[in-house]
Structures are given as structure tokens and as C-alpha cells.
Amino acid sequence: MINIAVLGYGTVGSGVVDVINTNKDIVNKKSGQEINIKYVLDLREFPGDPVMDILTHDYNDILNDPEVEVVAEVMGGVNPAYTFVKSALEAGKSVCTSNKELVAKHGPELIKIAKEHNRNFFFEASVGGGIPIIRPLNTSITADDVMEITGILNGTTNYILTKMSKEGLDFDTVLKEAQDLGYAERNPSADVDGFDACRKIAILTSLAYGKHVDFEDIYTEGITKITDTDFKYANILGTSVKLFGSAVKQDDKYYAYVAPVMIGNNHPLYAVNDVFNAIMVKGNVLGPVMFYGSGAGKLPTASAVVSDIVDAIKHLNDNVEVEWTEEKLSLTDFNESVKKFFVRVKATTELADVQNIFGQVEKIEAGVDGEYAFITDAMSEADFNSKVENLEGFITRIRVQD
Ligand code: HSE
């Protein structure tokens, strides 16, 4: 028998307990041991819930119990998760976490401590919910120079954009639905302003290149400026708008961003809807591969945490090497990044004036009163920003990727 502890009995924590109970025979067989949840840590009480028998409010009960071999940290947030996880690793326990904020900020340090103690720090559930992507990047895609990672990395925003696009629902109504379904972060700004996707692309990029990408260096724009009017144009054009997290290696430069992007129906991420996430990884010899599945939600995320617990048990006194050092990976200024732009302008703006600035663009009309749109050729962010300063009647812009 092997004893584990679960830190946090919220959406994911209760999912972890459910998955271990529901799939008891399977996870015991796969890990080669009977998994016993000895403690669940939470500040709250859960009257009537079987977890009450193993509930503790004091983390020291877990830290100081040498019988606890594996800790699942599913509380979220950097503090006190960081203190708890660090002390657990230093006490010689393996840790599995779904906490992307923690991993993006302290990943390399925690990986190093786990290695020093011949234990493991696993974080499969920190990116893409239930999608296996961390383990494939760490152990499968090792023969390639990764040229690009582009993903729909946030379930809440993909759910919102899909409902806005297909059902014409307004932003606030759909956000409330996503919260009720357990997809959204406690502070939904983390989802809708792109911060959650930013941490996730920082984690994936760090793993792909083995050096630390500081999430604060990544240009990040959320979906709060996307409206149903944008989708009227997208529908006419046969395109969609998705929140991308992307990292590209080009001529030994690294570019990364999070932003809404208009994509055509032949783009591999076009059909990724609702709470689903997908990550496309392009290797220089492998070409593109795709990972697809539920990007948020109690059971899919818990499934990834429990798969880490199984792996931690299989490698109890055997550190699985994770190449992610504290050395920083420098990102190139986002202003140098090149894209096409979809631009909406007021109807009072003469097309000739637009063409004077942007060249021979075509007028796009979607039956929206008082405005029209156009799509530019590819240009740098800096170039676009300086041109748009001279554009009378500018309403908004969305980056375009073919
Ligand atoms: N709020 C996150 C999302 C949860 O919507 O993707 C999973 O990380």
C-alpha cells in the first residue's frame, strides 16, 4: 500500500478523490500498489462527505508523516502552494500538481529540488487539463528541434468564443456558464485576460527548449475586446476567432504571445470548440503533431493529476529527468513579430485612404451599420501600429493566421 495526500478539496481535488475511487482497480494495477488517500487538506469542513474521516486543516500533519510518499497539490495559486510543495519535496515526497501559476513561476527550482532528493515533481495537469502534453514534450518529442508550439490553451475562453460565435450569446452570460461548469479560475480575469494561457505557453516553451521562459516576458492580450460584431465578419469570411498561445523559433530567435487570432477553416485548430483545448507542436523533422482533449473541468483535469500520481509511484525512488533549467530563454521583442491583420473601420473612412496606408486591401462588408473591414498583408506589429495611427475611423483589429 502507498499513502498519498491531496492538498485542496475544490473542483480538481474532489475530482482526484473521485477518480482514485472510481478507477481504483485500474490505478492500483497500473501503479503496482494499492493507493490509499491518507489525508485531504482543506480549510473548510465537508459535513456528510466521506472525506471528513481523512480531512486535516494542518499541513504539518502531512509534511511530518513519513508514510506519505506522494502529495497531489491541487489548491491553485502561488502561495501557500509554493511553500507546501517545496517543503514536501525537501522532505523526500514526490509532488504532482495541476497548478500552472506555481509551475510557471517556480518550475525549474522545484524540478531541481525533486532531483536532489531522487523524487519527482510532475505537472501534467498544469497545461491542457486532461490532455497529455507535458509527458510527450518531455519524453517523446526529444529527437526534434521544436519550431512552433501553438495551442488553444484555455477552456473557459474557448467555451466563451464558441458560444459567442455559434449561438450569438453575450460574453457575461457565457462566462457565468463556464464558471458554473467549473472551468473558470476563481478570478475569471486570469482566463479572459489571457494570463492563464500565458502561463501555460510559458511552461510548454520552457520544456521545449530546456530553459526558463519568464511568463512576464510574453505579450499577452485576452478576449475581452472580441464582440459579436467580429463574429459577423468571421462568419462571412468562413473564419473563426480563437485565443492562441504560441511560441515560434525562427532564425534562432524565439517569439511568444497570447492573443485572439482569426483563423481560416483549413487551420488545424479551427474545429477545436467549447471547453476543448488543442496543442499543435511542429518539429523540424517530425512536422506537425496535434494533442486534443478537454482543457478544463473536474474529471479530465483530475485524470491528468492521477496519471502523475501513478507515474510518481512507478518511479518512487527514481527521478525522471525533466530538462528545464533556471537559465533564462530570451524572447525577441513582440513588435518584430509578423502577421496579417483584420481591421474594422468606420464607414466614413474612404477605402482610398485605407489603401494609401495599407496598399491594395479589399473592402469586406458583413451588413454591420456604419462600418466595414479589410485584411492587411503580413507586416510587423511595429509597422502595423505606426500605420494604424494614421488611420481615421479605426475601430479594432484582430491578428490573422492562415
Ligand atoms: N481556467 C482554466 C481553463 C482551467 O479554463 O482552461 C484549466 O487550466
SSE order and pairing:
Elements: E1 2-7, H1 11-22, H2 24-31, E2 35-41, E3 55-56, H3 59-63, E4 68-73, H4 81-90, E5 94-97, H5 100-116, E6 121-122, H6 134-140, E7 146-152, H7 155-167, H8 171-180, H9 189-192, H10 195-209, E8 219-220, H11 228-237, E9 239-250, E10 253-264, E11 276-283, E12 287-294, H12 298-314, E13 338-346, H13 351-358, E14 371-375, E15 379-380, H14 381-388, E16 394-401
Parallel strand pairs: 1-2, 1-4, 2-3, 4-5, 5-6, 8-10, 10-16
Antiparallel strand pairs: 7-9, 7-11, 9-10, 11-12, 13-14, 13-15, 13-16
Bound molecules: L-homoserine.
Can you offer a commentary on this structure?
The model has no long low-confidence stretch (mean pLDDT 97). Strand 11 and strand 12 form a beta hairpin. Helix 1 packs across helix 12 and helix 2 runs parallel beside helix 12. By secondary structure, this protein is α/β, with parallel strands linked by helices. Helix content is 36%, strand content 25%. The site of L-homoserine has 11 residues, from helix 7.
Question: Approximately how much helix is present in the residues?
Answer: 25-40%
Order of helices and strands: EHHEEHEHEHEHEHHHHEHEEEEHEHEEHE
What is the 3D shape?
elongated
What's the β-strand tally? 16
Bound molecules: L-homoserine
Q: What separation lies between the terminal Cα atoms?
A: 53 Å
User: Spans of 5+ residues with little confidence (pLDDT < 50)?
Assistant: none
What structural class results from the helix and strand content?
A: alpha/beta
- Largest sheet features: 10 strands, mixed
Mean pLDDT: 97
Count every helix, treating DSSP H or I runs of 4 or more residues as helices.
14
Alpha-carbon Rg, integer: 23 Å
Strand fraction equals: 15-25%
